[in-house]
Specification:
This protein is α/β, with parallel strands linked by helices. It has one domain (4-186): 3-Layer(aba) Sandwich (Rossmann fold), CATH 3.40.50.880. The protein is built from 8 helices and 10 strands. The chain has helices at residues 14-25, 27-30, 79-82, 86-95, 108-114, 130-136, 162-175, 177-186, and strands spanning 4-7, 39-43, 47-51, 55-61, 70-73, 101-105, 122-123, 141-142, 148-151, 154-157. Strands 3-4-2-1-5-6-10-9 form an 8-stranded mixed β-sheet, sandwiched between helices. A two-stranded parallel ribbon has the order 7-8. A hairpin with a 3-residue loop joins strand 3 (47-51) and strand 4 (55-61). The longest helix has 14 residues, at 162-175. Its EC number is 4.2.1.103. InterPro entries: Class_I_gatase-like, DJ-1/PfpI, INH-QAR.
């Protein structure tokens, strides 16, 4: 499994980041081969990024991230600004081919969609923000009832805690279902392992 580069920006949602980071970061507790993935925090230019609830994180520049890793884009109130930031979107679009897999949590899918890179592909997002997200880029095939959606090398999840379920599923596809179930026990999390079961879709 490849390293995970989490793209941060001012106003990111902490659980969108740290839920999946906990899953991927704890893989090494069960995989003692020395090949467990590492979690990398990056931003467009590097430096300290300010998340919601006074969550400050030191990051490296996106351009410094090694080719071939997995990128995860979280959501949060900051995405409302990013989808209109043409310089950010242009730079992100240029960098995307370097990554082997793209993951999004919550409204992170709106940011990815705004680059135009996933036109015609299937994706989902936070159901409380679904009307706004789908308005950002109508060319994406938005799935309204899904905890997470897999479309090849693109995996998008619904809001906030759904990122943990998605991360466990991504782990299961690399390490096997039993490994992912053991990992969910390690982090004491009840895994919703069925992507089509979305209890918040009716919101």
């Amino acid at each position: 499994m490849k390293d995970i580069a989490i793209l941060l920006f001012d106003g990111f949602e902490p659980l969108d980041v740290y839920g999946p980071a906990e899953v991927f970061g704890c893989i090494e507790r069960l995989d003692t081969s020395g090949k467990a993935p590492h979690v990398i925090y990056c931003s467009l230019e590097g430096g300290i990024v300010h998340g919601s609830f006074n969550t400050d994180v030191q990051t490296i520049a996106l351009s410094a991230v090694q080719d071939g890793v997995t990128m995860l884009i979280p959501g949060g109130p900051g995405t409302r600004v990013l989808v209109k930031d043409q310089e950010f979107l242009r730079t992100l679009r240029q960098q995307l081919p370097r990554f082997s897999q793209l993951l999004t949590v919550c409204t992170g899918s709106a940011v990815l969609a705004a680059t135009g890179a996933i036109d015609g592909r299937r994706a989902t997002s936070n159901k409380r923000s679904f009307t706004w997200v789908t308005s950002v880029r109508e060319e994406v095939h938005w799935i309204g009832h899904a905890r997470w959606v897999i479309d090849g090398d693109l995996v998008s999840s619904s809001g906030v805690s759904a990122g943990i379920d998605m991360a466990l599923d991504v782990t299961a596809r690399s390490y096997g279902r039993a490994f992912a179930q053991s990992l969910s026990t390690v982090i004491e999390y009840v895994w919703n392992d069925k992507s089509e079961e979305d209890p918040f879709a009716a919101v």
